Structures are given as C-alpha cells and as structure tokens.
Amino acid sequence: MKNKELNSLKEYKYGFTTQIEDFKAPKGLTEETVRFISKIKKEPKWLLDWRLKAFKRLKSLKEPNWQKPKYPKIQYQDLYYFSSPKSLKDKPKSLDEVDPKLIETYKKLGIPLDEQKKLSGVAVDAVFDSVSVATTFKGELTKKGIIFCSISEAIQKHPSLVKKYLGSVIPITDHYFATLNSAVFTDGSFVYIPPNVKCPMELSTYFRINASQTGQFERTLIIADRGSYVSYLEGCTAPMRDENQLHAANVELIALDDAEIKYSTVQNWYPGDEEGNGGIYNFVTKRGACRGKNSKISWTQVETGSAITWKYPSCILQGDNSVGEFYSIAITNNHQKADTGTKMIHLGKNTKSKIISKGISAGSADNTYRGLVDISRKALNSRNYTQCDSLLMGNSCGAHTIPYIKNKNASSVIEHEATTSKINEDQLFYCNQRGLNQEEAVSLIVNGFCKEVLQQLPMEFAVEAQKLVLISLEGSVG
Amino acid sequence: MLKIFNLKASTGGKDILKGLNLEIKAGEVHAIMGPNGSGKSTLANVLSGKPGYQVSGEINFEGKKLNNVPIEERAQNGIFLAFQYPLEIPGVNTSNFLRTAINSIRKSKGEKELDALSFIKLIKEKASELKIDEKFLSRQLNVGFSGGEKKKNEILQMKLLEPKFSVLDETDSGLDIDALRIVADGVNSYKNKDNSFLIITHYQRLLDYIKPDFIHVLSDGKIIKTGRSELGQQLEKTGYKHLN
User: Fold this and answer.
1) How many distinct structural domains can be found in chain B?
2) Do B161 and A434 touch (CB under 8 A)?
3) What would the pLDDT profile of A85-110 be if each residue is shown by its tens digit?
4) What residue of B is the nearest CA neighbor of A478?
5) Residue of B231 and B217 predicted with greater confidence
6) What is the spatial distance between Cα B1 and Cα B24, in angstroms, rounded to a whole number?
7) Which of A139, B38, B131, B141 is the most exposed place for a label (fewest CB within 10 A)?
8) Residue B180, Cα to own-chain centre: how many angstroms?
9) Looking at this predicted complex, what is its ipTM?
10) What is the pLDDT, as a whole number, of residue A12?
11) What is the dihedral of CA A271, A275, A276, A280, to 10 degrees?
C-alpha cells in the first residue's frame, strides 16, 4: 500500500475517486484485520480500542439461532473485511454489460439513465451530475449547522460527537452481528442536527456519492439535538448491484428533548433467483433512543429485496411522553424469507408506541412478524397499539405473527390486532370485470393493503415504492 | 348483439345451466326471473367469464365467440356486470378504482387515458345524476357502504364505463323504494337504441320502473317461458309453480 494511495483514499469525500487500485485487508476475521481497518482510516486510538474491545467480545459470542429463516453457515474467515472501490477496468463499461433484467426494472421504475449507471456500478468518470447537486446541497445544510457526512469523515472532524454517541444505543456487547459490525465497520452516514433546527430537506444517502461503496458493515449514527427535526431516507428503490452476501449494518438514532427523527428505508437488494440461489442476507441492527422528553422516532420500512431479511428497527422510549412508531411492509416472493418486526421498550411515563406491519408472501416465501412491546414498571400511563396484517398469494407461502407482549404496570394499555387473508379470487374477478388485467388488479389490491404504510413515506419515494411493490410480485398470481 | 346457444355450465360436478338459448338485440331490455337455484347468477357469471365453471355451447357477442375470452377483455369489449354482492377492497380509494377502470378500458380501445382533472369532472357529473355524495368517492371501495350505496356504486360504474351490454344481477335486492327509483332512473337514462340490458330479479317492482321488452323464466337451468312485460305481473300473482 503506497502512501499516496492512502492519502487519495482519505481525501475521498463526495466525489468519485477513480485512481485507487484494488486493495484489500488481510483475509479473515482477526485482530490484524481490525487494526488494519482502523489504521487505513487513520482512526484515533480510542476508536481502535473500542473496535478491539468489540472484537474480543465477539470471540465469546455465538451467532443467534432463534430466528425462523435458517441459512448456511457463514465462513467468516474466508471473507475480506475491507476492500477499496473496484478499479474502473473491472466495472462494466456501459449499461450494455449489465444484466438486462436489472435494466428492465430500472426502466419500469423510471430511473434516469445516469442514475441507472451509478446503481449498476457502471464506471463513470469523475464528473457526475450528482456531484454538483451534493455540493450545493451541503452548502445549504452547513448554513444551518447541520452535519451530514460519512461516518469516517465525522470521526476525523467531529470526534467528540461520535465518541459521545457511538455505541450508546447499540452497545458493542449487544449481540453477535452488532458486535461484529462494531469491530469491523467500514463506513456509513453521520447526521447531527443542532438544537431547534428543522432540517429543510429529506436527507438521503443518495446525495452522498460514496455511500454506494460502504460495503457490508455499514454504520449509521443520527443525532437530533433538542427541538430539532430530521427526515432521513436510506437507500433507493432501485435494486442495488452488490457482491457482498452478508450485510450486518448498525443504525443508531438518538432523539433528545422535543426532537423528532423520521427514518425511512426502501430495501431492494438482490433476493436470489427464482429457485432461491444466491441473494443477500440482510442482518441489520437498527435502534433508536428517544432519550429526551417529548421526543419521537418513527421507522418506516419497505422490505422487498434480500434472500433473508432479519431485522427489528426498535425504539427505546426513555424520555417521558416520548413516541415510537414502526410502519413496515415486508414482501417476500419465490424463496425469500423475512423475519422482521420491531421492539418498543417503554421506560418513561406517558410513552406511546404504534406498530403497523403489513406482510405479503407469494411463491414459496415465508414471512414472519416478530415484535416485542415491553412496558416497564415505571412507564405509567403508557400505550401501545399494534396492527399486524398478512396477505398470502398462492398456496405454498407462509405468514406468521409472533408478538411478545410484556406489561408491568396496571395503568398502561396495550392493543394488538392481527389479520391474515388471502388475495381473494372474487376481488380479482371484480377488478377484471371492470377491465383491469390480472397485474393491474393485484397491484391495486396490494397497494390498498399497504396504504397505511406507503403514505408514511415521503411523496417521491412513495410513488416509486408503489411501483416496486408491483414489480416484486410480478407473475405471482394467475 | 348477444346470442346464446345451447349454453351448459357446471361447477363442482353439478350441472347448473342445462342448454339455455337466448338472443338479445341492440336496444333491448330483457329480464330473467326464476326461483332460487335456477341458475340466474350462474348465467351472469358465465357471461362475464368468471373462472370455476365448465362451459359448453356458445356465447356470441357482436359476432365474436366469447367462450375463451378473458374476463377483462370481455369488459373492455363492452360487457358489464353489476354484482349482486359488490366486493370490498380495503385501502383502495373508490375514485382511484374508477379511474383505473375507465383508463384500462380506454387504453384497450386505443384511446387516450383521462387525466386527473377531466376524470374528476366526469365522475362528479355522473355521481350527481345518481344523487351520490362526492365524499363517497374518497371512501375505500365498498368498505362500510350500506347495501344501497353498494348498488348505486355499481350503477355509477356502469354509467362511467359505458358498456354496450349490462347484466344487472339482483341489483334491486336490498334497496329501499327511494334507492330503487334512483337506480332505475340511472338505468333508464343510460338506455338507448345501441345498448342492451339483461336484468336478473326476483321481483316485479323493479320492472315497474325499467320496462323490459321480454321476460324469461329460468327454471332448472333452462328458459321455460318467455313473454312480454305482462308475464311479470302474472308471475307476481301466481308464482313459478304452475309453470312447471
């Protein structure tokens, strides 16, 4: 590794840096690997120590195995934990070299050509439209004192904030995949909203070019200071070309007094082929702490990709009167499996949580909602409302609802509603009789089923998500 | 317009229609009456192409054999069924549904899709003709609608989609007198020399408002009697028994 190259990597901020040659960390999950990552990223000693502590802890942990979807054993020692962006010559030269199926999906979603290239990893020279977009965008945010950058940059420029909050919601000892992430995370996003600032736009990783290279162990940290507001969009509705099989990201949100964070995800990673070969394991830990009084955290997720999705975006409602929300659509088709839901931990008084979960299964897929509502003894007058609806398409898929409910005080109220239904032949007939073809009819019924969640998404996202729902279920009825 | 020849239909191994013949010309209104279980709703379903029936014989619509034409194509060609039990579709806004429907039909004819504004104008006009409150259009399709509202919604869809041939399957059941009159007025105002109707009903009262050209009595899967509108009044008095 030449110094010059290292520097060019470090300077890599929000443009494409294309001069870097391919280089990788030593293979395998070892202390050497952890040190290598930290060194390459020029991290301060406290962070290296933090990573090493996590690594040490990891050795005493076992992979959890209580989840419904089973997967073949992951060979951690065969993985590379750090690899630079691929060099230009290894990337597809033009869209002609990209899987036509992928391109077809982009067209259906109405993704602009430049964006298609970026998503499918086509080599693009340094000048790229979004660079200027990202720069103007940054200027506006800086004026308000908002920090929005990669976590690597934040570690260098805002170490006290990172040190104070990193791992404060998901401790390094949490569980196998979270601990693994703490030891070897490579990059991710960092957001800080100063007191009483309402972030004027939806923040999206899309505007942060280097986000597409963050790899499999992404780390995101969002802090909303007193009285502030931010809406954050993760990902993009288009399928991501991605070579990594295991994704173990950690996302931590912190809302202080009277602050609100809205976090939306549309996950559309490679789900594997129709026979169930390949596809991404999406084992993500997402957790938000409503640390201040009257704070609010709202998760909205549309999960349509990945071979296995295993995640529970959660809220810890510490501050009195704080509010946690979880809106989810999980679609599984072919051989996809999802075990997803949320945890609402009520600690403060008068805390409220709301869970709306919509699971759709088609083909031979299996979809589980698993959720925990835990109201502690001190969380007086707290409330939870949960609604879990499952929709089945065809005869070989499965849907399961596994709610865990704990209420430790008599002044709190918990409501749980669950329904399971099949796409009704008569509903389809009714739509067909009005001139809609089978796919239009399915789309209409499914979008109706998902509506309560879709309407939580920011406008432009919702339209794409709606199309995505249809594409994910294409050909699954009739 | 519609010619049915020796139509037989069975479902789950049970024969329901057993050789039915019927011809409906453009501009005509036909009524079908008959005891429960005689095959009236099956006829409506088979005409619109509902799956689940073994069908033989021939259904000919405007010179084209319909037997193997998919449901949506029949609809696009101008066949409309007003459902006896309109389906609820949760989360789907009534006006969105109607717009999707009218645009599917327009697309199939190679016409331009209606934009949101022209659609709203059109739907408001049709709704007011049927004395349907505009608020109704923003509700979820048929969810929580009263029986009368559901039936009015069917007639609204008919007027919007402008079919050539409409089957009304017991549209009068569950309607109070006022709603019955509104539904009948809706049909009468749409009726002209180019379109035709098949009205399935148990009661003469609907036929007091919508004058049929012919009344057929369906019994055990066959038409056993055909007459002019007086047949309805006669049946009201004597019932079906003496016809067998």
Assistant:
1) 1
2) yes
3) 444 455 566 666 666 666 666 666 66
4) B51
5) B217
6) 6
7) A139
8) 15
9) 0.95
10) 29
11) -30
Interface touch B91/A447, C-beta < 8 Å: yes
Q: Is the CB of B138 inside 8 Å of chain A's CB atoms?
A: no
Q: Angle at the Cα of A362 (from A356 to A367), degrees rounded to 5?
A: 45
Domain that includes residue B149, residue range: 2-243
**What amino acid occupies position A69?**
P
Task: Locate B25 and state its tokens.
Answer: 């010309």
Residue A395: both structure tokens together: 């005869």
For residue A440, pLDDT beyond 70: yes
CATH number at residue B39: 3.40.50.300
Question: Which residues of A make CB contacts under 8 Å with B?
Answer: 424-427, 429-438, 440, 444-445, 447-452
Which one-letter DSSP state was computed for residue A24? B
What is the per-residue pLDDT across A114-134, written as a single tens digit (0 to 9) for each? 666 655 555 443 333 333 445
Give pTM, 2 decimals: 0.79
Length of chain B: 244
Average pLDDT, integer, range A450-458: 87
Q: Please give the Cα distance from A52 to A57 (Å, whole number).
A: 8
Q: Are A447 and B92 within 8 A, CB to CB? A: yes
Burial of A52 (0-12, 13-18, 19+ CB in 10 A): middle
Q: Is the pLDDT of residue A280 over 50?
A: yes
What CA–CA distance (Å, rounded) separates B44 from B74? 13
Question: Distance of CA B10 to CAs A340, B7, B14, B46, B51, Å?
Answer: 45, 10, 5, 10, 11
As a residue count, chain A comes to 478
Residue carrying structure tokens 């007011």: B128
Name the DSSP letter for residue B47.
H
